[in-house]
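Provenance and format

Records in this collection were gathered into a single text stream. Each protein contributes a sequence line and a token line. The two records reproduced below are adjacent in the stream.
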Amino acid sequence: MADYTSIKALTETAERLRVLAAERGTSITALVAEMAEQTLTNEEKEARARAAAAELGVEYTPQLRRSGQDAWARIEAHAARTGNAAA
């Protein structure tokens, strides 16, 4: 049997989660689980960046790491301005 815990959220946030879950035909629990499963941790992002650099035959240096972080920051800023979700 699965273990559950409670998460406190602002009333507005909880209502938005209810609406999003209803629109997707799912529960808030499933919606939060999906988000958690699809969102990479910083450690996972770092591992993927290292793997991508290795696959491309590029040395993963601190400069390359900073350049990648700067690029993602620009992508996320653009997505925020245009109302599109960043990948």
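Adjacent record:
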Amino acid sequence: MSDDFNMSMRKFLKQVGVTSQQAIEEAARDKGVEGQTYEARAVVTVNGLDVEHVVTGTIKG
């Protein structure tokens, strides 16, 4: 892969991580809940490459 491709992919994934964390933290603050466990699912789709990558996990409050 080219350096440009790798850099743009890393930039996109960093943005996904940072903005997702902010959105989850805001939702948790708005709900005012702590000590709970949440099942999480993230889907990354790349048009033109026919990629749909799913990550699942648990977030503990």
